[in-house]
Amino acid sequence: MFSIQSKWRYLIMFLGIQLVVMALLSREGYQKRVTYFIRIFRKPDGGAVSGRNHTTPTISGGDVYANLSHLPKAHGHRDDTPYCPKTSPLIGGPIHVSFPSRLSLAEVERKNPLVVRGGQYRPPDCVARHRTAIIIPHRHREHHLKFLLYYLHPFLQRQQLQYGIYVIHQAGNYTFNRAKLMNAGFREAMKEEDWDCLFFHDVDLIPEDDRNTYVCDSNPKHAAIAMDKFGYKLPYKMYFGGVSALTPLHYLKMNGFPNNYWGWGGEDDDIGVRVSLAGMYITRPSLKVGRYKMIKHKLDKGNDVNPKRFNMLAKTRQTWRADGMNTVEYEVISREYLPLYTNITVNIGTEAGLHPPPRTPGPAPKAEAKDAAEKLKEK
């Protein structure tokens, strides 16, 4: 009798364990949970660095500058310099991202001795296979820009790219227009170099894995597939925001970006629709690789939510050929070749145009009243 009861007890326990395992596996994030339980029974790694701020228990990030210390300090390109390998040996995978309060641009400059005037770089010991321009729409976000430059320069160097960083700064205090700034950035960057890929990059997003290569695909690429603010998941299928990449041919095929989205929201979805309407589709890295950490901040002053965005999106099919790269108007106010980036300040005008005609002043209210009184006297 005792043995039968024991068998039933073990059978119930076994079934219970199976149900628990099935419940864990059926929920989102099961891989993290399973890995966690496995790690309980694994001996701790004696060489692990403690105290790191991991984004998840399974991903440990390394120092983004770690693999660059052995690079030559000067460019030694000759006629017989070999091409860089197809896969860079400097790529290390996950990157530890934090935001030290005392970081300065001078420190970023010191840590990137091979970056030359205007934020340009090419590998010192091989000829890059890819030339990538980074376009950053910007206004009043210097604090965020400092952190992005700190991580982005070594991130791109580890991929052995020839690259240039362009910050497109909107002049004035009129409502922010991200997409129009990116149109201006495309045109100005292509004037300087025959870039074969352009990455359009929000200033507050830091890449967390250098296997997310900043090179273009055969179709438009959405690189920021997994942001921490969305739980490292794609929020919806057509999302094309944050960080995206186009070749010049892709860009011209879809007529660039819309110019009429003033304020926050809508332009990313419009761009995603343009990709489809131009006969292309969106490619993405894996969720494991396309990870980004967002620098927390409040909605910017002058970048309020665009109340017209949904009505505008509904008309994209009718407007995309008539509004974009072929109609963008702007003026370059200044171009500064700074140690870590090229800063291009542009006037992009307002909703009324680049140079709206002055309003014809009507008669003053007092004058109108006086004229009316005189007419009554005459009657």
UniProtKB/TrEMBL annotation:
Record flagged with keyword Transmembrane helix: yes
Cofactor(s) essential for the protein: Mn(2+)
Membrane topology category: Single-pass type II membrane protein
Record's GO cellular component terms: Golgi cisterna membrane; Golgi membrane
Amino acid composition bias (Pro residues), ranges on this chain: 355-364
The Galactosyltransferase N-terminal domain, residue ranges: 84-217
Location in or out of the cell: Golgi apparatus membrane
Enzymatic reactions: N-acetyl-D-glucosamine + UDP-alpha-D-galactose = beta-D-galactosyl-(1->4)-N-acetyl-D-glucosamine + UDP + H(+)
Region (Disordered): 351-379
Annotated GO MF terms: metal ion binding; N-acetyllactosamine synthase activity
Annotated ranges, domain Galactosyltransferase C-terminal: 222-298
Record field: compositional bias (Basic and acidic residues): 367-379
EC number: 2.4.1.-
Keywords, in A-Z order: Disulfide bond, Glycoprotein, Glycosyltransferase, Golgi apparatus, Manganese, Membrane, Metal-binding, Signal-anchor, Transferase, Transmembrane, Transmembrane helix
Pfam family, one: Glyco_transf_7N
Pathway: Protein modification; protein glycosylation
Protein function: Responsible for the synthesis of complex-type N-linked oligosaccharides in many glycoproteins as well as the carbohydrate moieties of glycolipids.
Family statement: Belongs to the glycosyltransferase 7 family.
Protein name as it appears in the record: Beta-1,4-galactosyltransferase
